Amino acid sequence: MLRKSKIAAAMLMATATAGVNAAHVNTDGTGQVALLPYYNVNNNFITNVNITNTTGEYKAVKVRFRESRISADVLDFNVYMSPFDVWNATIRLNGSVANIITEDETCTYPAKALLQAGVDFRNIYTATTDEDLTEGYVEIIEMGVIADGAGPANDGGLEAEIDGTGIADGTVTIAAGDRSIPAGLLHDATGMPADCTVVDDAWTAGAASAANIDGFEPGAMTTEGVAQDAGGPVNPYADTMNAGLVAPTGGINAYSIMINTATGAAFVEQGTHVDDYATVAQHYQSDDQSNYLLPSLASGDVVVANMLDNTGAGVKTTGPLPLVELDTGAINDIAPNPSIPMGSNPLPMAIVLSADAISAPYFVEAGINGETDIVATFPMRKHGIYNGSILTLDLDGAGPLAPCAGTLNDGVDDGATVALTTLGTPANDYPETALGSGIHCTNAGYEASSPDVEVGLVYYDYEEQVAQVVAGSSDFSPVPINAPTIVALEREVNVVSVNRSAGGNQSVLGTPAANVFNWNLDPGFEAGWVTISAAAAYDYTSHPSIIAMVEAVGGVPGAAGVWTGVPVIGFSAMAGDVGPAQLGETVDLIRSVNRTP
Fold this sequence. Notes:
This protein is mostly beta strands.
């Protein structure tokens, strides 16, 4: 296979997407979106999260923590980064729940003093337990660039401000009582931002008058459920949408370090970075009851996905992808909270994260107490991508609720603008009770159709001996004849703990027993590698769940077998004793991606 350097690959992708934005994984380690596949506070672990703004621009960044069972949002907030800034924090166990704390001085919303004191992750959901919150994953999304006037931002020379008159014009006149937002965010020689109160004050100024534009004001979604900015992506005060911000440009890097405080073993995990996911800003407050799940991995406005092809010399592109019938938040069960918008454009992100199979090393040699856990996170399941269900407009079947208006997969968007149940605020691309009624229909949802993501596990030792995982079995070999060899990974974050056949080894990460998938090796296997492959035909052009959810008739346009796989990120965490110390290492998943055009 032809190999190309990361720089050459990035240049090829940039050339191919010039003039046509296309979501793609940036192998150079920066992007508009960064995904950390795992955080953990079990088994004496803490997780240090590090986010870097590698650009000379001011950035508004959403940081969102999602728990391991259903990807419920358990804490999110905004970080306002000055040029070349780094923000970091530590996730730890506080009693029975995860807690985040930081000493970082970068400005945030809510105010950084709360994070500096420590904040518990919030388990408010019917479907989750405190144990589910002890591990999960992290979404980091650039919401936009803060207009900086004379700086490098593409903002027409205008600057984000709180205007003394209450009407921002993008020109800061100190004598007139204007306050520069970027000046308040900038760190001085002591490392302290000049004035972090500018963040709260900018949101207050923006909310002060419905008729005037000032400070910060939130973004908005189109009637089709994607991000928009009617005033244009480079004018911070052309309209109220995303006031003070201009289009995102990427350059965000994220990684984390998990440290076992009892043994000293450290495990570094690199983020997966995606660029060109959005061309407009998406700026929302974390305490906005109707929009706190925005931006999301399904709210960007770019509808094309690209990747390098199988030769390494060309680009495989989807062309314009269809939106889904309904905003993915409309059918995301986060009871007792009402379902709120998350966007209707999950396919570009899903496709660039998809793999037909993943492989990982394992090491459980008894002589040095070897341990291995493999993490496989499915970040798009909450957006309806291969979540073991099929979209329906009549979830309760026989009643008493009437079906929602419309017909799935007929080429007509069934979503409408409705008043959200409980909240009363408007939401776009939501199911309605009757065409044109504007009344939120709560009878749309996912109907179980298969046991989540089904995979097969085939593993090898260092001498090419091979064995296979048998579903539902914790027994020894020989493998029973005609036993099932397909297993279901049922969680958003799946931890596969590798066990020696003779027993005696421990889990690296300490995932709660109810949440872990135990993989018991055959006798003679203590080190090697495993391939976890999609056992069913996860084809975006023909899978029933994809066909049901998209607006266009059929699935994703294209021939069968061209766009396949399941969105997955993760790593293998291995540990062993060396003298009195335990050493740890992580290895990124080896991804088998369908790159054939």
